[in-house]
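Researcher: Re-running this chain for the archive, since the previous output was lost when a drive failed. Same request as before.
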Amino acid sequence: MSMKTRRLWAGSAAVAFYAALAATWLQRGVPANLLWTCHLGCLLVGVAVLAGRPGPCAVGVLWLVLGNILWLINLAGGGEFIFTSQLTHLGGLLVGLWYARRAGFPRGSWLRALAGMTVLHVLSGFITPARENVNLAFRVFDGWEKTFPDFQVYRLFLLAVSAVLFLAVELLLRRGAPAKKTV
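Model: Regenerated structure tokens:
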């Protein structure tokens, strides 16, 4: 099977994962949840793999790494397990890592991921309902209120932790990926 065919299958799978999750949220009447950075990360990975674009794929991978950590914290704290959510979180990440290993992980992806996530955070505060707290745009994550009584301090903490995580993951993944784009 050619690399182009593998990219077609992998990218289509990631887009399908997002579509399956979209169907779940639309059926539940909560379309705003499609705008979570991790969910959009899966869609971004899929589109980037289909287009043969390592840069956007790297951003999607970084969003998914952070999103998976928060998703697991949410589940550990009693959050609802939604079957289709594992498709985007795990499936999207696996597709993104597969492609990054073949196409490379561009330098500076961590900064693009941070900028994009910040834009999504702010945008979520304008276009999503507060009750959903999409991208943590309205309040401190449930259960963390005692640790972060001030929402602005919490936002700065998330930004700093995200920056460090994105940079660390980029450095780690660049070690295992080709230096140049090969796909």
